[in-house]
């Protein structure tokens, strides 16, 4: 009768009760344990605690149980230090482990030995309330402490920012994280010829020129996702005058108190004149202004790169082309006629090029050609023939047609040199030999070559 009453009391208690004998086997497993562990009492009684929970118990619990049975020591495992020592779960949400407070006490067993009583209390709700209360108290205290000061500081900063933005000699605008304008100073609105309507959603990059817009938007999205700094140079369009101009935009992220990027403040500088000058200088440094071909510097860079990438494993050819009788055209018809001739020869040589070949003007009436690939020297002879036929075609200079020829010298890598200087000297020497040979036999009249139509092809070795 007493045992039955004890069982009813144990099952009525709203906490877990376990009794382990001296061997660590379960002798009592109340209803609360059944509900929160999912293990029936008849499945638990008589088994070891670790077997029931499949080894998922905090090892500190097992140590406390042994100390209670072996030495009669009691232990309290507070939820603050040991939040979930047993794998127990709530009624409806099996995925959430209960926060527990565990008391382990030695008791006298039925066999006269020392047993162990384990009491488990569900403190999940208590922990959540404590956490919420602490968080709310802390937040309220911080807000009350800083609210007055923050409001005053915010008012001053806003006034200061707007005055600085109004007087700034550069464009200034502010956006949200998605690039939508929230503020734009007068200078920026004047630069793009557009007054921002804050009642409409507009992106700052709507004024970027069409040819640059896609790249600018892609860069902006990449930077804003990462919360980094945006720096770029591109063209904008003035919506009033339709003038396109270069700007340099530097946008820094604006972060909230948690360090998250919530927007950007950007400065925009009109760099049109400097950018156009820089582009012109770069064009002049790379291309011959008369013919549009590469000049000496970029051609030498390509030749050096060809030597480095070939590294003795692949052959390529270098051709020097010197126009015959060009001086006579200059002397007879003037330098403007000579310029027309050079531009025409450049167009003909460019039409003969393959994608991987390079032609450049080295100055005066000298051209140089880099053949990226060829099969054998017979190919080079055919190339020289094509060049001679292309050059020998009559050229209209406005008042008449003139004819001239050319001398072609060739060097092959690595046979004639393993570095750019050696290849250039070899090609120049052979071109000079060809020119001298023609002079000795009186054959510097290219008009004797059989005229043939220029082959409009992109494969020089075809």
Give the gist of this structure.
The protein has 462 residues and is of the alpha+beta class.
Description:
- This protein has 3 domains: 2-122, Beta-Lactamase (2-Layer Sandwich); 168-276, PAS domain (Beta-Lactamase), CATH 3.30.450; 288-448, Reverse transcriptase/Diguanylate cyclase domain (Alpha-Beta Plaits, 2-Layer Sandwich).
- By secondary structure, the chain is an alpha+beta fold.
- The chain is elongated and about 135 Å long.
- Helix content is 44%, strand content 23%.
- The strands form 4 sheets. The chain has a 5-stranded antiparallel beta sheet with strand order 2-1-5-4-3. A 5-stranded antiparallel beta sheet has the order 7-6-10-9-8, sandwiched between helices. A 4-stranded antiparallel beta sheet has the order 12-13-11-16, with helices on both faces.
- The protein has 14 helices and 16 strands.
- The model is unreliable at 445-462 (pLDDT under 50).
